[in-house]
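Team,

Forwarding the record for the chain on the shared tracking sheet. I've put the sequence and predicted structure together so nobody has to dig through attachments.
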Amino acid sequence: MNTYQSIEEFKVEICDCIYTRYEKSIEEKNRFTLVLSGGNTPRGIYEYLGDNYLNRINWSKVYFFWLDERCTAPENLDSNYFMAHSHLLSKLDHVGGIYRIRGELDKERATRLYLKELNSFFGTEEICFDLILLGMGTDGHIASIFPGLEHSEKTKEIVFYTNKEYNGYYRISLGLDVINACKYNLLMLKGREKIEIFKNGNESHLLPKDLVNFSKIICIDDE
């Protein structure tokens, strides 16, 4: 766990890590699959990438996917796609591909479509992303795997949808097995509260964050 006091150091460390993984993937197979997440912490990372890496990365070889999405329109301010588009994708002239979760559709249909796109992209290969950017909620949730879902059969699926709303929205999410199959899971934690929750968790039972294999954890203790 790398912990920083400066927001600038925090952003630089995360973006350098993304760039290092990008270079490795380009060298190995000439493409980079990057899975984006929502929340306040990734917003600053997307802005930093858009401001400082426009010419360092060949974005035409970068393929964007989403970790999870709220069931809402892509222009909704709460949409994870909208946030990524506003702060990063809109700054890029050409990318390899954008594979968003269609949250504006019926959740069952949107889940099927995302699964179809993943299977089409990876073909006969195992679905294995190069890097997933992960955050964690103050309840220990990862992606849309909330407490109470960590042992659900649904979360073992490649893509699943929630049967109830969380903070006002049904969710569609990648499952635990696909997340753990990723080559590099990068967890970003902002704030002392989340750092303490990650370290100490819940003494009585496991939280979703306890079921994810993290490659690197980068924190900022800004409180």
